[in-house]
């Protein structure tokens, strides 16, 4: 007999960072990049709940009376921040969105997604955006069900400088 999971979507707390860290590692492994996770639960606490708040967090917490190992634990999360587009204005950027495998197909992902959309609307964002891996068709289909548009061809390529590259380049600038 299948278990019906009950959960609550709420704002993340500092005390959630250890669980979020493990879910971040789980997501990175799913994305075939598990070896790239360098963050720690302590840094998550500092960056999300310290003096300067660099990100916001929504979590889906399983009911304490769930009859599984997930009772009272976090089954999914969305990590996001606000940015500014000089053409359109304030936006919400979803950096990470993940629901652990045993919590899929129960509405947890949809509940988290609807919650972050409400945040963007409440904060009067002009848009909401995110990246998705081109091979993750399940995620692409999920976003399209909400009316999302693929703007890859419109915005160009995404570039990055790593921490070490930044330090090296900066050290050469007079």
TrEMBL record:
Residue ranges occupied by any N-acetyltransferase domain in the UniProt entry: 7-166
UniProt record similarity statement: Belongs to the acetyltransferase family.
InterPro entries: Acyl_CoA_acyltransferase (IPR016181), Diverse_Substrate_AcTransf (IPR051016), GNAT_dom (IPR000182)
UniProt-recorded Gene Ontology molecular function terms: N-acetyltransferase activity
Entries under PROSITE patterns matching the protein: GNAT
Identification of the protein by name: Diamine acetyltransferase 1 isoform X1
Alphabetically ordered keywords of this record: Acyltransferase, Transferase
Ubl conjugation found in the keyword field: no
